[in-house]
Amino acid sequence: MTVHIEIGRDSQGQPVQVDVEELLATRLLVQGNSGSGKSHLLRRLLEESAGLVQQVVIDPEGDFTSLADHFSHVVIDAANHTAREIEALAARVRQHRASVVLALDELEVEAQIRCAAQFLNALFDAPREHWYPALVVVDEAQMFAPAAGGEISEDTRRLSLSAMTNLMCRGRKRGLAGIVATQRLAKLAKNVAAEASNFLMGRTFLDIDMARAADLLGMERKQAERIRDLQRGHFIGLGPAISRRPVSVRIGAVRSGGKAGGGGLLPLPGAGEDLAALLHAELAAEAATPPPPRAQSPVAPPSMAALSEAIAHRPPPAPLPEPALPLPAAHEDALAEAPPAPTPAPGADLPGILAEMAAEEGATFKPLNNLFRDFAIRCRQRGVPSAHVDTALFRRLFAFACARLDRLDEASRARVEALAERVEDDVLAPYLAICVAAVEGYSAPDEDELARVYGSSSPGRVRRMLEHLERQGLVVVREDFGGERTISVPGLEEVAG
Hints:
Elements: E1 4-9, E2 15-19, H1 20-26, E3 28-31, H2 38-49, E4 54-59, H3 67-70, E5 74-77, H4 83-96, E6 100-103, H5 109-124, E7 134-138, H6 141-144, H7 154-170, E8 176-182, H8 190-193, E9 198-201, H9 207-217, H10 225-228, E10 234-239, E11 243-251, H11 275-280, H12 283-288, H13 305-313, H14 329-337, H15 350-359, H16 368-382, H17 391-403, H18 410-420, H19 428-439, H20 447-454, H21 459-471, E12 476-479, E13 485-488, H22 493-496
Protein name: DUF87 domain-containing protein
InterPro entries: AAA+_ATPase, ATPase_Atu1862_pred, HerA-like, HerA_central, P-loop_NTPase
Domain AAA+ ATPase: 24-257
């Protein structure tokens, strides 16, 4: 059965229809400058097909939330949900065939892009039994599939571009029909635009955009001027779901409305109003009110009190001869020229050496083998026995040295050490730093401190480390799209309380 909806009238007054079933199979690209009527076109398309097919709207400006007032759409305010909640909502949207509007207008630009990408990926990854047909409308698609890198991070750009590519290139087999709208074709990634077989081109003025639009519509370059002369709300349509030849269409009326301000003139305030007084009233008091403070983990001087206990809990093996470690030539020369090892000073022990190493700038970024060799040299120079410390034990002791557990009381340190016994060596230091922040009552450790103890300056690596800890059940991460991250440690509730 073929189902058609009317989106408007052509120049002769005849209805222009869209074949919904064909649209599901062939996708749609809408282009038009700001003010050309692009959002109005999308609204007309959504309203006319609302009772025929499931609809998912990615709405960066909050323009389509009014659909819920007239139809059965559910508005999802992304600012009120974490990343995992957004993914779970997307899975439920596919399962229950609900029409939704993902409102992103309360988020910063990068958070909007990441949220939309995670939502689209979750739609795409739904189980096969939930592959029902759905129209997925992405307004301002040049944000989510940019042709070139912008001010957002590279990780976010790649995530979003991958999600949009999956929607347009592979979404059809999963029942997802992409409808993307953009202000400029030149800003939209070509591999996303190229997958659409239907086009509705509105007014645009730049030569490069007119040329690309004319190419997509099969028009000669000299006819591209026609696109510049289009009135607001007028589009040129082409494609198997619209028309086999380019057709001019004036978009029809809609029932719901956007929240954007109108373009008409409004009367100015009356001359009798004291605008200067209104603008300056209590201005100093408002400016003097400080913003709410954001809790951050304090930075305390390093100490190795906890390491002394860790060493005491592990009895050393029988004494062995000092191992002959392969050392770099520079270190061998330094040892040969060094004076005889001095008598150990009071307090010169393994925790002190480890604390000294951990306090050095960039220590956590050095390879483990280099650190262990440096540790062995320092122990020899100071006459501190270290034969019972192998590489594996050194790695864990160094992690304790970097985590600064001296800020905790004895009971809290013992509890943290007990929990750390089941943590892998390569993520032990950041885990301990998270535990310290949790015991002290902070919602999350300082991000710079977490990166330092982990030995990485890459936000992506830190994020993957946290995901790994969460998969292991060691921490629970909750991050909203406003940028606030909360990390809790199961098993520390009674200590933190």
